[in-house]
Amino acid sequence: MQLRRRTARQLARAAGAQVVGAARGSRKLDVVRDLGADAVVDYSEPGWTTRVLEATGGAGPDVVFDGVGGEIGRAAFDVTARGGRFSVHGAASGEATVIDPVKASHKGVTVIGIEQLFDFGPHLRRWAARMMPQTAEGAVRPIIGQTFPLERAAEAHAAVENRTAVGKTLLLI
Predict the structure, then answer these.
(1) What is the pLDDT of residues 28-80, one digit of tens each?
(2) In the 8-state DSSP scheme, what is residue 107?
(3) What residues have CB less than 8 Å from 6, skipping those under 6 apart?
(4) pLDDT band at residue 101 using 50, 70 and 90 as cut-offs
(5) Is the pLDDT higher at 90 or at 88?
(6) I need a labelling partner for 34 at 20 to 30 A (CA). Which of 8, 11, 40, 62 fits?
């Protein structure tokens, strides 16, 4: 079970996991559905965490990828299953999710922070070699939502900052 992140969602789905995708707005929810999520919830709507719990039979997701942070991230942590994993890897809301270690320990939830990225370097070639066949087979596909010429970089950044971008935003040079 997973909340958030497109590539992780695709990999989980390819491995046979049940996937709950959380996004804001119909455009992003459509992308999540197209990527094969078993259920989708709009985290900008009241009661979204109740829908997550319903989709997971009341247990909550075993794995949560939090790229939003702030209030949304804290709410996602609250519905994470006992003994689950909660990965903080973004702060689209403007603030990273901070989880009280005592609360995490009480729930038996392992919290993984963005600092884990610093250890990725030595593994990149091996991981890329594993991903390329999955990408070629169509099990994983990058979502490029929009492109901008380099001279319109300010517009591209504004789309990302305003959270209106769907998928990755690329600058063309």
Answers:
(1) 899 888 888 899 999 999 999 999 999 999 999 999 999 889 999 999 999 99
(2) H
(3) 31, 32, 35, 143, 167
(4) very high
(5) 88
(6) 62
Prediction pTM value? 0.75
Task: Write the secondary structure of 4-39 as one string of H (helix), E (strand) and C (coil).
Answer: CCHHHHHHHHHCCCCCEEEECCHHHHHHHHHCCCCE
Long-range CB contacts (within 8 A, 24+) of 104-107: 104/77, 107/80, 107/82, 107/83
The rounded distance, in Å, linking the Cα atoms of 148 and 151 is 8
- Token pair, residue 97, equals 């999710």
Spell out the domain ranges in the chain.
6-119, 143-173
List the helix and strand counts (H, then E) for the chain: 7, 7
What superfamily does domain 6-119 belong to in CATH? Answer: NAD(P)-binding Rossmann-like Domain (3.40.50.720)
Dihedrals φ, ψ of 134, to 5°? -65, -35
Question: Residues 121-134, buried b or exposed e (16+ Cβ, 10 A)?
Answer: eeeeeeeeeeeeee
